[in-house]
Every structure is written in structure tokens, then in C-alpha cells.
């Protein structure tokens, strides 16, 4: 009888230990999930580390108000807000909507590194101010560049697509 009581108690202790180990494991896993899920997605720091060398991005980080993806998907609420983008660029002859002054501006088509062809942007740069960029793209048909740009409120037309004015560029 004593032997049976000891065996029953041992079974209870073993079952209790298994339950405690199981609960500790579940708790540890749920804390890990909370830590990863509570981190913000697509922060400026994340964009900087994924899209560019730190020097160019960091130089303009304080003026950046949005990302190219946010601007693309919500243009009307991101007018006048500078954003950063990096990708493969080439000269383009796409002048449309309120970006039609070919005498003053040249057009650069850019496919983002972290996007696809449907995500391409058209940036317009002053011909005099960015002559070196124009010349570089004439000599190199495609080149990776980094751009800080924005969509001017007075140049925006509903339905225009990804078109913006270049503020600065590293090529």
C-alpha cells in the first residue's frame, strides 16, 4: 500500500513537472513573438540599412517624411513630403501631366531595388543644375542611383502615376 502511494505521488510529481516545463516553454515562445511583432515595420532606420549606404541616407534622414512605397500608394496624402529611393536608372522621354517642360527638365526612369517594374518612378531634374547626372546617364545607359524627391502640390494631377521632382541625387 505504501508502495502504491509512492508510485501515485511520483506520477503526480512527474505530471506536474511536465506541465511546468510545458508552460515555461509556451511562455518563452509567446514573449519572443511579442518582441518581434511589436517592432515597427519599414522604419527609417530599416529603409536606410536595406536601401543605401548610410552616408547618403543619413545626410538627408532628417528631411525624409515618408517612403517611396507610401508615396506611391497614397500620393494625395504625401504631397510635398520628401522620400528616398534607390534603383536602376536610365534617361526617359516621358513628359506628361504637369511634368512637361522638356526645355527645363530631363526625365529619369528608375526601377527601385526593392520593387519591380510596376513600381518604377519618373523623376524630373533641372537640366542646368543636374547636368552631370544627365551626362552620366547619357554615357551609361543604366546606372544605380539614389534619389531624394517629392511630389510638388502644384504639379500633382490625380491619376498621374509615380512622377516626382528630384531634390538631390547620388550617381
Description:
With 171 residues, the chain is an alpha/beta fold. Helix content is 39%, strand content 25%. The protein has helices at residues 2-37, 44-51, 54-60, 68-73, 131-139, and strands at 66-67, 83-92, 105-112, 121-126, 143-150, 163-170. A five-stranded mixed barrel has the order 2-3-4-6-5. Strand 3 and strand 4 form a beta hairpin. It is globular. Residues 22-52 have low confidence and may be disordered.
Concise account of the structure shown:
This protein has five helices and six strands, in the order H-H-H-E-H-E-E-E-H-E-E. It is an alpha/beta fold. Strand 3 and strand 4 form a beta hairpin.
Key traits:
single chain, 171 residues, alpha/beta, 5-stranded mixed barrel, 6 strands, 39% helix
